[in-house]
Design brief:
Layout lengths: L1 E5 L14 E5 L6 H4 L4 E4 L7 H4 L6 E4 L9 H6 L3 E3 L6 H19 L7 E5 L3 H12 L3 E5 L1 H7 L7 H7 L2 E4 L17 H5 L6 E4 L8 H9 L5 E4 L10 H6 L2 E2 L8 H18 L19 E3 L7 H9 L3 H9 L4 H6 L11 E3 L4 H10 L2 E2 L1
Parallel strand pairs: 1-2, 1-3, 3-4, 4-5, 6-7, 6-8, 8-9, 9-10, 10-11, 12-13, 13-14
């Protein structure tokens, strides 16, 4: 089997070779000629895979090591018997960690208590569910909006987007990017969205850049229609709007889902798709080993103030990523490709926790107790 893989997908080298002859390329080097004889592709979101690249190729399977798949022309693939597979939920824990950390930082900066705030979650899939869980753990009132799920499930746990616009102090987006259909999300947050807000919320986008209309949110920030913004996903990445970047409170280079755990999950899921497609063994997946961070033990007894918030920031402080991007925005792609090791809560052990409520809360988020 001939496999062409993005060289920046972690934990892949030395493992995928179990399945065939592998060529590693940068995202920009996935040309028509480069993939012509490949049986399988393992990709990220950098390059669009449609007729221009795929026509006349031997490609039978495209695996994207990402949740999103808007960079794959699925209609073309389906019509030409090319199987495609994404990695749903692979980095949900990582995005949960990112959202929790930016919320804690914003509360500290702006001097409010998270337990006094209402957060509106737009999109409650694999990621949104975990974001809801951590927000509830932080004591927040949570409003959930997900029209497709509400239609299928008929559940009363969801609210209309208008309710979120009216009542939320913080609004965070976790939808896929869709341009057509009843619930299209392209420019969901447009000028009309911001003009119809009932409060002056903080806006978070850790989903897809084009869910928010850049021109509209810049105006909303200038006109004080919103109290701030945390932006991880941008329109026209990696060539992001620098004025926009400098207007927001926390700016990061599309790394919310970049924990080592999330990357490992995505790689496993991509390799599992190859194994399933060709009925091969999944034993090679066991070779994926994620390195441990230094100082992975948190002493609950020495934490002061809000211990849970302190523990969350020990695992990940987003100001480091913000500072790296602000100091060199032209290195957007490099900052993603050379992202430092970040582990999720499950990689941290918390010791000296004696209160049963604290224990339950930490275990709920995935921390290990000692």
């Amino acid at each position: 089997m001939k496999i062409v893989a993005d060289k920046n997908i972690p934990f892949l080298k030395g493992v995928v070779e179990s399945y065939g002859e592998v060529t590693y390329l940068s995202g920009a080097d996935f040309t028509k000629e480069a993939i012509k004889e490949a049986d399988a592709l393992i990709v990220r979101t950098v390059t669009h895979f449609g007729k221009d690249l795929l026509e006349g190729s031997s490609v039978k399977l495209i695996c994207t090591a990402t949740i999103g798949y808007d960079h794959i022309d699925t209609a073309y693939c389906d019509a030409h018997n090319i199987k495609w597979a994404n990695a749903p939920g692979c980095n949900s824990g990582s995005v949960e960690q990112y959202i929790a950390s930016v919320l804690v930082v914003m509360a500290q900066r702006k001097g409010f208590l998270l337990k006094d705030k209402t957060i509106g979650i737009v999109g409650v899939g694999n990621v949104g569910k975990k974001v809801a869980l951590v927000c509830e753990a932080l004591g927040m009132r949570v409003l959930k909006n997900d029209p497709p799920r509400e239609k299928v499930e008929g559940s009363n746990e969801f609210v209309h987007l208008d309710t979120i616009k009216k009542e939320a102090d913080i609004i965070t987006f976790h939808t896929p990017l869709t341009r057509e259909g009843e619930h299209a999300t392209y420019h969901l947050a447009d000028q009309l969205f911001f003009e119809s807000l009932g409060k002056t919320p903080i806006i978070i986008n850790a989903a897809r850049g084009a869910i928010i209309d850049t021109t509209a949110i810049k105006k909303a920030l200038t006109d004080k229609q919103i109290a701030g913004a945390i932006i991880d996903c941008w329109e026209k990445e990696p060539s992001i709007d620098l004025d926009y970047m400098n207007m927001v409170d926390i700016a990061t280079p599309h790394i919310a889902g970049y924990s080592a755990d999330g990357k490992g999950n995505a790689t496993r899921m991509s390799l599992a798709s190859i194994a399933d497609f060709w009925a091969l063994s999944k034993e090679p997946l066991s070779k994926i080993v994620i390195p441990q961070v230094e100082n992975s033990v948190i002493d609950w007894a020495v934490l002061d103030g809000n211990k849970l918030e302190k523990a969350i920031l020990i695992t990940y402080d987003p100001t480091d990523d913000h500072n790296r991007l602000i100091s060199n925005p032209y290195a957007f792609s490099t900052l993603r490709g050379n992202y430092p090791l970040r582990r999720e809560y499950l990689s941290y052990t918390v010791k000296n926790v004696y209160n049963d409520a604290d224990k339950a809360l930490l275990q709920k988020l995935g921390f290990i107790l000692k």
